[in-house]
Write a structure and sequence with these properties.
With about 375 residues, the protein is mainly beta. The protein has 6 helices and 22 strands.
């Protein structure tokens, strides 16, 4: 048996479940009949169907889990989790994120440790990168929300008015709203009062004390009559949540029958189970958040665009790509070559694993690495 430490987890990956003593300690992007799979460090190969890990169990907690994707067995003060890959792949979008939240709610994990466990589960068996993203994110336009975490950045774009009045006084007409995946495209007609646009970026920074993250401003810039200049702070900060709030979702509703009207709300909660309950409340009745409430929700004015992004590093600089972006998306966003394929000879890709970045090995002749779905925190570079 091989073992190691992964944050609060003490991972015991068994040889019978795919961990061989001399298995490569890198990710390996491996071709399969229906595409590619990403083989994690320490896992023997792409055909491994079961993985295992163990965590410290809470005293007196049964830590039950229903289903056959993750099989839990208590051994003294340890809780062993066997991961069945085929059953895991049959679960609905966002299932693993929700399961780890339920483990926290049961008291099986320290508060806020669920995402770390979920990541370790994903790294216990070979998976297609898009399948790994799907298991962690139930978000799409049809379902009505986007998961937000430390891997994300938020962008707001608000009009600047001649009068100097707050942007919410601007009169606009939304001409059309279309959506695909986790993206909304809103076509608007502004009044003559608009002279420019302010763009602000926000990060979700993990709390130093306590679970979850705090939404903080990264930068702000104003563009007036084609001239851009940085400013110390945006004219309006829409994310003033109560101190105990640490988990968030962007919820949106588009009504194409009423001139494409749309509502965007960032819902916050002190833990992920409460976030699930609040999400459902808002989806059932948008009047739950009529106005901004620091204890629960930030209501974004209709004239302000709010766009979630995923943060990765490209050639040493942070780049923000769209949700469910790929390696080729990050290369393009960094103003790389016209063809992402041109950097394949010297391309280097690393993914987070156990608190560090680990190399992804791939076939440079196939170009499959360019279509690898990003989870956030990856490092991409070329010469």
């Amino acid at each position: 048996m091989c073992s190691g430490t992964y944050g609060f987890l003490a991972a015991g990956l068994l040889a019978a479940c795919g961990c061989a003593p001399r298995a490569p300690q890198t990710y390996r992007l491996t071709p399969q009949q229906n595409g590619t799979v990403l083989v994690p460090p320490g896992v023997a190969g792409p055909d491994v169907a079961r993985g295992a890990l163990s965590i410290q169990a809470a005293k007196g907690r049964p830590c039950d889990s229903i289903g056959d994707a993750l099989i839990l067995t208590r051994h003294g003060n340890r809780l062993r989790i066997v991961v069945a890959r085929d059953a895991l792949l049959k679960q609905p979008p966002g299932w693993l994120r929700q399961w780890s939240a339920e483990m926290e709610a049961q008291g099986c994990l320290p508060a806020g440790a669920g995402l770390e466990l979920a990541s370790r589960i994903l790294d216990s068996v070979p998976l297609d990168s898009d399948a790994a993203f799907r298991l962690m994110h139930g978000d799409n336009v049809q379902k009505g929300y986007v998961e937000l975490g430390p891997e994300n950045r938020l962008q707001t774009q608000a009009p600047i008015l001649k009068s100097g009045k707050p942007p919410e006084t601007n009169r606009i007409d939304i001409a059309n709203v279309t959506g695909q995946g986790a993206t909304l495209n809103v076509d608007i007609r502004e009044s003559d009062e608009v002279i420019g646009v302010e763009t602000a970026w926000y990060t979700l920074r993990p709390k130093a004390n306590g679970a979850g993250s705090t939404i903080l401003t990264l930068s702000a810039e104003r563009n007036i009559e084609g001239k851009s200049e940085p400013v110390a702070a945006p004219q309006a900060d829409y994310f003033h949540f109560a101190p105990d709030i640490g988990f968030y979702r962007l919820i949106y509703k588009a009504d194409l029958q009423e001139k494409g009207s749309t509502t965007e709300i960032v819902v916050g909660a002190p833990d992920r189970m409460e976030l699930e309950r609040r999400t459902q409340r808002v989806l059932d009745d948008f009047n739950t958040c009529k106005v901004t409430d620091p204890e629960m929700c930030a209501v974004i004015p209709r004239h302000v665009a709010l766009n979630p992004a995923l943060a990765v590093t490209v050639n040493g600089v942070e780049v923000r790509v769209g949700i469910r972006g790929m390696v080729r998306s990050a290369i393009a966003q960094a103003h790389g070559p016209q063809r992402a394929e041109d950097v394949l000879p010297t391309l280097d890709v690393k993914r987070p694993y156990g608190g560090r970045l680990v190399e992804v090995e791939f076939d440079r002749a196939s170009g499959a690495i360019l279509n690898m779905t990003l989870l956030g925190g990856e490092s991409i570079s070329w010469k």
